[in-house]
Amino acid sequence: MPWELTVGIVALVIGVAALATAVVGMRRTRQRAASRPTAAPRSGPPRTGPQIAVVVNPSKENTDRIVDTARRVCAEAALPDPLFYDTTVDDPGTGQARAALAAGADVVVAAGGDGTVRAVAEGLTGTDTPMGIVPAGTGNLLARNLDIPLADVGEAMAVVIGGRDRRIDVGRARITPVPDDGTAPGDVAPEAVTSEDVAPEGPGDEQDAHIFLVIAGLGFDAAMVADADDHLKAKMGWVAYFLAGARHLHGRRMKAQITIDDETPVAARLRSILVGNTGRLPGGITLLPDAIIDDGILDVAAIDTRGGLAGWAQLFGEVVAQGMGVQNEAKLRIGRIDHVRARHIRIDVEGGEQAQVDGDVLGRASCMESWVEPGALVVRAPA
Q: Which metal ions or organic cofactors does this protein require, according to UniProt (predicted)?
């Protein structure tokens, strides 16, 4: 079969899948200026049982439905009225999670997208209090990997109440911003990280690092996330990332030096390098088929393509195949994805590349270091 025809078939299949997902996943985003009280008024006989707190991202379309459903489900289970905390631009959930802990919450629920989940997890990491999830975002990465219901708030709340507690690993990513590139809110100031820094596990290291629960990335994937249009994300879900990625298919390959644990650094030319805690992505894609969320190890995927669209077509085919357990053993490939495992990885990039953690853009970085904190977070998963 001519390669042009192969590319056409791949493009058609991807396009149909994208269209179907867009139709199913269309939703609107609207801002709410009003804030809710931290606790719903109590009525009827007093209830006993675990206290649930819900950290809500008020910019999501179904915020009111989340609040109403959480109250109803808790009432039906004879649990105390839930506590509610709205996120803000300045605090996307970490402070609210800690406030919920201080108020005596037994379970803290992140109700929002991946950014809200990351922020709440930051506030709960290192504690024994479980984090529940009510998905309300574009990617819902951790919820997908834990098999938490994505489309039904009631079913997600049922997991919060009746699920099991599971300890999972937490990833950390620390970047060195490109000089004169500025630092986004929450990023580390350039002088706080030097090329001599290392990131062994130990007290205090997390203070200048970003948490991730699914995947951190450097290169093509982060550029795709950075360029995704917010309006399209609200309308079309994860397909907006696919459209943004199409603009970078002919971008340059980055020059990187990669250091895995204590091994000798290796030079590479790549499109993207991903460091994952688990590997299931939207669209039925499994990028890291061997990743396990509680094995104390990070899985690394090095992605490269040459030969224009033919290389990307081969890469897409390889990603789909590996998700089905089929590996391409050919030595000469113009699109390839290679895997390695690590507890600590350092990536130095010539000229800098965009960096991201769980879909949140960190900015251009000349270096990214990542490491794992085994079993650092308790999550409420399906029984």
A: Mg(2+)
Same domain, 173 and 315: yes
Residues 142 and 188 grouped into a single domain? no
Distance CA 302, CA 305 (A): 10
- Please say if the pLDDT value at position 309 is more than 80: no
> Is there a single domain that holds both residue 291 and residue 192?
yes
Q: From the DSSP assignment, how many helices (H) and strands (E) are in the chain?
A: 10, 16
Q: How many residues does the chain have?
A: 383
| Cα separation, 58 vs 36, whole angstroms | 9
Contact 254, 269 (CB under 8 A): yes
Question: Would you state the pLDDT for residue 369?
Answer: 97
- The residue among 188, 212, 191, 168 whose CA lies nearest residue 345 is 212
The pLDDT assigned to 92 comes to: 96
The partner residues of 86 in beta bridges, in order of sequence, read 56
Report d(CA 223, CA 216) in Å as an integer. 12
Q: Considering the chain, what is the average pLDDT of its residues? A: 79
Question: CATH number of the domain that 319 lies in?
Answer: 2.60.200.40
Summarize the confidence of residues 220-245 as an average pLDDT: 69
Residue scoring higher pLDDT (270 or 305): 270
Q: State the virtual CA torsion across 92, 96, 97, 102 in degrees, nearest 10.
A: 160
Contact between residue 110 and residue 53 where contact means Cβ atoms under 8 Å apart = no
In tens, the pLDDT along 100-129 reads 999 999 999 999 999 999 999 999 999 999
